[in-house]
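Researcher: Quick test of sequence recovery. Tokens follow.
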């Protein structure tokens, strides 16, 4: 039994390494925001799930994480997947099909095969991408059930974001206006950092995920017993020693990531990162009975971040002056998108069809947007309001599990706090941008959320009573 167990453990470790490797390389090809890149991501994730399935089916002793606590979320997500598949199916009632097919058929004088979706091929691609993100979440949830494996995942994701941050900083300081080997297309993206992403706003979200990972490691329970049980003076000294002597590597990593985010000059990106960090500090304070460490540490981070912002945040401040004009253009897009939602509120226009549908609603003088710059409105237009609501409820179920873990004082609730903080970041950014439609960000977020949910359930389980504890 022992050789078989060793083989199973090796195979599981191989899947874990494969998942981490996939997450590390997926931002490289433009954030995987190209058909060949997200298709390759889907193939890699599918292969890892297949290998994991073989491990589970072959081994008799291998223990998998129970899916019962997240079963409602899985069922709701499955319903959304089924609905996206129905949108691209020709067998649905004709009354559900989009009117564009009738108009096209009359113009061509032919009987076209019609579907709910305006573009069935794009909808099938959307289904594949949703399956990919769900697969990343499940793999992370299954593989990161132990605290050691979960922390290793967070550290490796942090390492990946740090590599792309350093690359972006070097390229920007060298004055190279290219994304990898391609010249930057958007005039507004010149002389700003975007690393390997096509948009600086998208990189700001990705860097923000890494920054919160750094804070997660920084604020794990590692203070010496008694450090916080004395006066404020000695508590502050203990915090300074902890932050700058014992965890200086995380301080350096967080500083590099924050500096790279500032160099994007993304107004929304900087704002949502600040929101995510603030959410993490507020939540982690809830998990500590003695909050002096959190308050003193938060004050130190605030002072340090303010210094970095004062040095490199001038470009972001300058861009605040053009905020009203940019906001008015976005509001116009939102209004037109809402008009499209009203035309098909229940069945939608098909996942991934925004770029094909929006030209029908935009005014002649408005820019040809390919994204709604509001993920919620875009999903409501493409999936329909009911399916979008179900998808949000599935996510909410996972977040409730993470939030419930905060009541376990001092039992490594920093990773569930991370899950809530990164959700606050991407949820806020999704109000004004399309950050979650970028596969690298969506896959990284799904992996970190899977880690957070797994650790939240781990905290909820009472620790095993060992013989040593009985004697004690």
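Model:
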């Amino acid at each position: 039994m022992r050789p078989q167990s060793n083989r199973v453990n090796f195979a599981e470790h191989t899947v874990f390494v494969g998942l981490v490797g996939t997450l590390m390389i997926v931002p490289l090809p433009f954030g995987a925001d190209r058909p060949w890149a997200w298709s390759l991501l889907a193939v890699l994730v599918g292969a890892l799930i297949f290998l994991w399935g073989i491990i589970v089916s072959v081994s008799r002793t291998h223990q998998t994480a129970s899916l019962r606590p997240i079963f409602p979320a899985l069922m709701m997500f499955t319903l959304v997947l089924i609905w996206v598949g129905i949108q691209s199916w020709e067998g649905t009632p004709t009354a559900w099909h989009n009117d564009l097919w009738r108009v096209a058929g009359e113009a061509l004088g032919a009987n076209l095969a019609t579907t709910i979706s305006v573009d069935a091929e794009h909808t099938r691609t959307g289904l594949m991408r949703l399956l990919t993100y769900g697969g990343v979440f499940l793999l992370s949830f299954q593989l990161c059930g132990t605290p050691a494996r979960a922390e290793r995942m967070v550290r490796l994701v942090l390492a990946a974001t740090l590599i792309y941050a350093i690359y972006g900083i070097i390229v920007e300081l060298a004055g190279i206006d290219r994304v990898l080997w391609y010249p930057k297309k958007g005039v507004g993206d010149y002389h700003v950092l975007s690393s390997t992403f096509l948009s600086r706003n998208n990189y700001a979200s990705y860097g923000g995920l890494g920054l919160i990972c750094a804070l997660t490691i920084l604020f794990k329970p590692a203070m010496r017993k008694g450090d916080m049980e004395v006066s404020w003076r000695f508590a502050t000294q203990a915090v300074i020693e902890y932050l700058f002597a014992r965890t200086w590597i995380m301080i350096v990593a967080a500083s590099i990531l924050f500096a790279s985010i500032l160099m994007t000059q993304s107004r929304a990106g900087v704002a949502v990162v600040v929101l995510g960090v603030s959410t993490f500090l507020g939540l982690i304070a809830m998990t500590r009975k003695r909050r002096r460490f959190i308050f003193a540490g938060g004050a130190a981070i605030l002072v340090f971040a303010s210094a970095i912002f004062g040095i490199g945040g001038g470009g972001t401040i300058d861009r605040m002056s053009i905020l009203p004009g940019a906001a008015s253009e976005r509001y116009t897009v939102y209004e037109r998108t809402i008009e499209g939602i009203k035309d098909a509120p229940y069945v939608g226009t098909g996942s991934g069809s925004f770029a094909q549908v929006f030209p029908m609603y935009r005014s002649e003088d408005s820019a040809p947007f390919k994204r709604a710059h509001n993920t919620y409105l875009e999903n409501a237009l493409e999936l329909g309001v009911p399916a979008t609501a179900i998808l949000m409820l599935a996510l909410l179920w996972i977040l409730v599990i993470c939030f419930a873990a905060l009541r376990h004082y001092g039992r490594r609730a920093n990773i569930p706090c991370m899950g809530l903080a990164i959700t606050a970041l991407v949820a806020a950014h999704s109000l004004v941008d399309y950050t979650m439609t970028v596969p690298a960000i969506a896959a990284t977020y799904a992996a970190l959320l899977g880690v957070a949910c797994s650790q939240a359930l781990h905290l909820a389980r009472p620790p095993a009573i060992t013989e040593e504890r009985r004697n004690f």
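Residues 147-173 form the longest helix (27 residues).
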